[in-house]
Write a structure and sequence with these properties.
This protein is α+β, with helices and mostly antiparallel strands. The chain has one domain. The protein is built from 18 helices and 22 strands. A hairpin with a 5-residue loop joins β15 and β16. The two termini are 34 Å apart. The N terminus is likely disordered. GO terms for molecular function: leukotriene C4 gamma-glutamyl transferase activity. Its EC number is 2.3.2.2. Keywords: Acyltransferase, Hydrolase, Transferase, Zymogen. This is Gamma-glutamyltransferase.
Length: 556
């Protein structure tokens, strides 16, 4: 794994974490200047990225691209790219826009994480997920101190080139003017988990009747919140009027905890896979487990197996059980516990693991296990590449609305993943499933930005695509359309999409698996958002996952 120069000091043997606060950047390493962050008023002086991290090369590519979970969010990113913004500008605009049109999945009341890479320099990882408050107490709602706004603000400080207000404008317009409820949003609003969240909200359920597909959703309070952020800067959410409003409305979120919120900036994890290097989310997110799963499957000969065959599904599922065990036994917030990343991503060590179908001590998840989050991938003409996953945890988060946005229930993951390495403490982030990822080529350049919603299914979703595309010679379209699956933690049950053939199901049952088809309306198997780079032609390629309503745009 390549270690970014900006986190090395004399005698350093591991990447140091850099904490980015709403007031400034505090570097744990003894050397290096302190950088003070302020609300971005103008882009007249372009912010500098961290030293040697994710450096673009001017006019490297002939095209630019964005992929996200909704066409209107893609349009927001496309607009920013067309106006001269870079990939980070576009990702910020897309992230705010998707929070308006997918209010159940991500937004101001939640958090997320992102990998940024370029054709030069080293990939960098930002973690702006929710944290436990300063008292160390988890409220009944499971809500943590939100990090989304701080994350977007710090990304703009480090990489943005357009004005902050310009990046929020598309989202504000969508909230203020409204947009047509899509079929997918209509289904989400009709599900039982939506009733407590939206049935008493007049703009979601006028006259007590929940909006249907084709009707218009207007979010005036959310538009006002976006306007305040646009005018006052992102710090308002942590130390201004928005912070005061949130602290007064939400149990377990107080003014001091908001003011003390920190964004973590560090190295992504990395590991060899086929002819590539995979970089993925740092702990407590499961990037190490994804890499481990890929390396185990590769060592078991998955490259030579027929895609979508029973042998292939069986092998990848057994590799998943090992990776799931890693998530439940080894991962935690690295600011509080030691995580053996080097061991978990060691190709030779993972090649020696003998696969088993036995239960590995992880709690079993049902089909209703929150197939949540949203993913955004962006590449600009200078090769700057973004892979971003944002969430409010479950669909509709805690179900509590403040100032037009839904508040997360992310801290519920401490109970769901109740291990010695994942216990709540003040300022701590929980282990969970979001996994923004990139594939780098032999020159260390970003080749593929990829990620997906899907909760507990995310590692299986990404592994299916990466194995078929990276090892088995499938096109990106073929890999994304391929049937998806996940083995239950008992090592006996396979949850399958209904596109798996009866013949393959019969062969899997002969192997000893019990099979269960998950209903489509659960949206359990995600929506992959990819952007693929071809450096020889300067062209980009993407495709839409048919499972939800994701979209993409490739522009000159």
């Amino acid at each position: 794994m390549r270690t970014p120069l900006h986190v090395l000091t004399a005698g350093t043997t591991a990447a140091a974490l850099i904490a980015v606060t709403s007031c400034g950047i505090v570097e744990e390493e003894p050397s290096g200047p302190e950088v003070t962050a302020s609300a971005p008023e103008s882009a007249s002086a372009s912010p500098e990225p961290p030293e040697n991290a994710a450096t673009p090369v001017e006019d490297l590519l002939e095209q630019q691209g964005v992929s996200a979970g909704h066409p209107l969010a893609v349009a927001a990113g496309e607009q920013i790219l067309a106006e001269g913004g870079n990939a980070v500008d576009a990702a910020i605009a897309t992230a705010f826009a998707i929070s308006v049109v997918e209010p159940y999945a991500s937004g101001i009341g939640g958090g997320g994480s992102v990998i940024i890479a370029g054709p030069e320099g080293e990939p960098i990882f930002y973690d702006y997920r929710e944290v436990v408050n300063n008292d160390g107490e988890i409220p009944d709602s499971g809500a943590g101190v939100p990090g989304f706004v701080a994350g977007m603000g710090q990304l703009h400080e480090d990489y943005g080139t357009m004005e902050w207000s310009e990046l929020l404008a598309p989202a504000q317009e969508l909230a203020d003017d409204g947009f047509e409820v899509s079929e997918f949003l209509g289904v989400r609003m009709s599900q039982p988990d939506a009733a407590a969240a939206i049935s008493d909200l007049e703009h979601y359920a006028p006259g007590g009747e929940i909006l249907q597909a084709g009707e218009t959703l207007v979010q005036e309070d959310l538009a006002q919140t976006l306007q305040t952020l646009s005018q006052n800067g992102w710090q308002d959410f942590y130390t201004g009027g928005l912070a005061e409003s949130l602290a007064s409305a939400a149990e377990g979120i107080d003014a001091e905890s908001l003011a003390d919120y920190e964004v973590v900036r560090t190295s992504p994890v990395a590991g060899e896979f086929g002819e590539f290097e995979v970089v993925s989310a740092a702990p407590g997110l499961p990037g190490p487990a994804l890499i481990q799963m890929l390396q185990i499957a590769e060592a078991q000969g998955v490259a030579q197996m027929e895609p979508d065959s029973a042998e292939y599904i069986d092998t990848l599922s057994r590799a998943w059980l090992e990776a799931e065990s890693t998530v439940y036994n080894d991962l935690g917030d690295p600011a509080f516990v030691d995580v053996p990343v080097d061991r978990l991503t060691d190709r030779e060590a993972n090649a020696q693991i003998e696969l088993s179908a036995q239960a590995l001590g992880a709690p079993s998840a049902a089909a209703e296990d929150a197939p949540n989050t949203t993913h955004i991938s962006v590449v600009d003409s200078d090769g700057l590449t973004v892979s971003m996953t944002n969430t409010i945890m479950f669909f509709w988060g805690s179900g509590e609305m403040v100032d037009g946005y839904f508040l997360n229930n992310h801290l519920s993951r401490f109970e769901a993943i109740d291990t010695p390495a994942n216990q709540p403490e003040p300022g701590r982030r929980t282990v969970t499933w979001s996994t923004p990822t990139m594939v780098l080529d032999g020159e260390g350049q970003p080749l593929l930005a990829i990620g997906s919603p899907g909760g507990h299914q995310i590692l299986n979703i990404l592994s299916t695509v990466l194995v078929q595309w990276g090892l088995q010679g499938a096109t990106l379209e073929e890999a994304i359309e391929a049937p998806r699956f996940r083995a239950a933690s008992d090592g006996e049950t396979l949850y399958l999409e209904d596109t798996v053939s009866e013949e393959v199901i019969s062969e899997l049952e002969d192997m000893g698996w019990q099979t269960e088809i998950w209903p489509v309306e659960q949206a359990s198997f995600g929506s992959v958002q990819p952007v693929l780079i071809d450096y020889e032609t300067g062209q980009l390629h993407s495709t839409d996952d048919p499972r939800r309503e994701g979209a993409h745009a490739v522009i000159p």
